[in-house]
Amino acid sequence: MIKSRRDFLRSLGTGAAAGAAVHWPLGEISAAYAFEPGRTQQSDGFIRLNSNENAYGPSSKVVKAIGSATSVANRYPFMEYDEVVERIASFHKVKVEQVLFGCGSTEILRVAACAFLGRGRQLVQASPTFEAIEHYANSVDAEVISLPLNPRFAHDLDVMLAHAGPSTGLVYICNPNNPTASLTPRKDLESFISKLPATTHVLMDEAYHHYAGRSEMYASFIDHPLIDERVVVTRTFSKVYGLAGLRLGYAIASRRAIEEMRKFLTQDSLNAIVAEAASVAIGDAEGVQDFVKRNSDDRQEFFNQAMGRMLMPIDSHTNFVMMNIQHPAEEVIEHFRKHNILIGRYFPPMSNYIRVSLGTPEQMRAFWQTWDLLPWSKKFTHH
Question: Which residues constitute the domain of residue 167?
Fold first, then answer.
């Protein structure tokens, strides 16, 4: 089984749809995207729909900041450390001692595992979920307890609570969840956290927060904090901000929790270019709104196309979709790879589901054209 994020990056409820669900004509691209730049393939020839990245790249403001920052690439960014922390703290209206940044949010997961786990301690998590925390828990000899999602693809909090005890050092909640793109209701999470042992920390991974939107079901634990020193919330600049390649993530938590985690942080993990890019990105509300709107449109069109083919996607609150294809996922993953399209890897135990990151309209057109080449794809439309 592929355990780490690095490994799987190297590998390869039905949502409601509005409007008519029709197949894209093979020879046409929607006029609404006539001026989109040609980004269908990467330099290696593959269309990448496998890592939940922002297919449109960073905003023009952030691109400009990246260009300017290259002039100081020969300098250590020591002076930028405090500036980045202050910028994040100000944005979230918290104290600077409540902020910890790392080389991507995966580094935050690593230091959380080091701080709150170890031999004789337990990690409780869902399955499937983002697997980096499991990798880091194993590296510090902690026991990992992985429990199935419930039938609605939310975290089964009752079952997780039943497995949490005095030796449970950390509970990991990815919300919205990766790979299922599903939500666990906020009110249920609050009740769950209140019943956990006093020595158990909860890591709320909000990597896909911006795509979830505000609703009765979902509210960020940063924007609407739960006053509990055990809760650690992580965010990343890799998703909506389009900076996956520059690596910056952060945690918001109590001062005590941050200081425990800081002991295990990699020294000098901030690079000069991402320091400048992140400072601009976090304040670029217009750019974020644009990406969220594009994602919403692209996601809706994916559901239209999927349901027009009688497919069964899970309702998505992210920039990717997971759907039941009623065939072995590994066969379909290989089919797309042979046609130069990378989609998400196989996620056991969901053996008949594939995860597809949303790309540009041109990229998604290529995806559906390739889907229609599957020898059994027509059977769905005739049900």
Answer: 60-281
Residues 144 and 252 in one domain: yes
Rounded alpha-carbon distances, angstroms, from residue 61 to 82, 239, 279, 280: 22, 16, 11, 7
Last residue of a domain, one of 238, 256, 281: 281
pLDDT digits (tens, 9 = 90+) for 152-202: 999 999 999 999 999 999 999 999 999 999 999 999 999 999 999 999 999
107-123 exposure pattern, b = at least 16 Cβ within 10 A, e = fewer: bbbbbbbbbbbeeebbb
φ/ψ of 293, rounded to 5, equals: -65, -45
Ramachandran class of 5: left when φ > 0, alpha when ψ lies in -120 to 50, beta otherwise:
alpha
Assess whether 82 and 194 both reside in one domain. yes
All residues at 6 or more sequence positions from 123 whose CB lies less than 8 Å from its CB, including other chains: 113, 117, 133, 134, 137, 142, 143, 144, 145, 168, 169, 170, 171, 172
- What is this structure's pTM? 0.87
Residue 33 bridge partners (DSSP): none
CATH of the domain at 170: 3.40.640.10
In 3-state terms the chain splits into helix, strand, coil percentages (rounded to 5) of 40, 15, 45
Cβ 175 vs Cβ 132: under 8 Å: no
Strand 201-205 vs strand 168-174: parallel, antiparallel, or unpaired? parallel
Same domain, 18 and 32: yes
The reported pLDDT for the residue numbered 17 is 34
Do residues 182 and 250 both lie within one domain? yes
- Residue 308 belongs to a domain with what CATH number? 3.90.1150.10
Phi, psi of 257 (to 5 degrees): -65, -40
Instruction: With a cut of 70, say whether residue 236 has pLDDT above it.
Output: yes
Minimal CA–CA distance to 189: which of 217, 162, 148, 230? 217
36 and 94 both lie in a single domain: no
Residues 323 and 174 in one domain: no
